[in-house]
Design goal:
- Helices cover 80% and strands 0% of the residues.
- The protein is mainly alpha-helical.
- Helix 2 packs parallel to helix 5 and helix 5 packs parallel to helix 7.
- The longest helix is centred in the middle third of the chain and has 38 residues.
- The chain is globular, with a radius of gyration of 21 Å.
Length: 237
């Protein structure tokens, strides 16, 4: 029987190709835009500014791509034929995408650190890791935890929307695409409201949205496991 580790590794290796493509496009974009946006400013300033902006866009792009790849794998007959429980393959699918996000996040941190090196070296105050305030490190740790939970919620909820929409149109007398589209729109509006509600509050309310994210993960993740075992039909992909 195929092991969970082997399936997880293979899924990650497939997705990492898209991550490398996005990173390559980001690096080319940084260099290109920095060269053409250098109007009376230092090249280093333009480079770091474009680097930070492109990171946000690249993260949104890779999250969208990984959501698409997740659903392709979930409904793929080739993957479903692997002798491993559907729930285990679903978990491996989600976790491999999360690992992909962590992977690109680390590389982007290194890229932006390199772009900021001229500022750090030119700073009149020596940069010493021992001089960093505990609050800065603590806030950064909280941000990483929140981002981790957020991408996990996104992947799980996208699968939930996909599974549920197919289930609804399959039990209706007429299999129409516009009904599935309507279901997706309604569920997306609900998700937007939930995320908007859990994201409100000051920085001191950091725990509140993260607890809600964990609850969302448990609820929608449980539905996903139930749906993929009972109602998801695979296709040749």
């Amino acid at each position: 029987m195929k092991s969970f580790k082997a399936v997880f590794k293979q899924m990650f290796l497939q997705k990492v190709k898209y991550i490398h493509l996005v990173l390559l496009i980001q690096i080319i974009t940084i260099i290109f835009l920095a060269l053409f946006s250098n109007k009376g400013r230092e090249f280093d300033a333009a480079l770091s500014e474009v680097g930070l902006t492109s990171t946000v866009i690249a993260d949104l792009a890779i999250t969208t791509i990984l959501c698409w790849r997740n659903e392709r794998i979930n409904s793929s007959q080739t993957w479903q034929l692997i002798p491993l429980a559907s729930s285990a393959k679903y978990i491996a699918n989600v976790l491999s995408s999360v690992l992909g996000c962590i992977y690109i996040f680390i590389i982007q941190l290194l890229i932006n650190f390199i772009l900021l090196l001229p500022y750090l070296s030119a700073s009149p105050v020596p940069i010493n890791i021992n001089n960093l305030e505990y609050g800065v490190i603590h806030d950064y740790f909280q941000l990483c935890v929140s981002l981790f939970l957020l991408v996990l919620v996104i992947f799980i909820f996208v699968s939930f929307v996909n599974f549920l929409s197919y289930l609804i149109i399959n039990i209706l007398p007429t299999n129409t695409k516009w009904i599935r589209l309507l279901v997706i729109v309604v569920l997306t509006v609900v998700a937007t409201y939930i995320f908007g509600y859990t994201s409100t509050g000051s920085i001191s309310d950091w725990l509140k949205p993260n607890v809600q994210y964990i609850i969302d993960i448990l609820i929608f993740g449980s539905f996903d496991l139930w749906l993929i075992n009972k109602y998801v039909e695979s296709k040749i992909k």
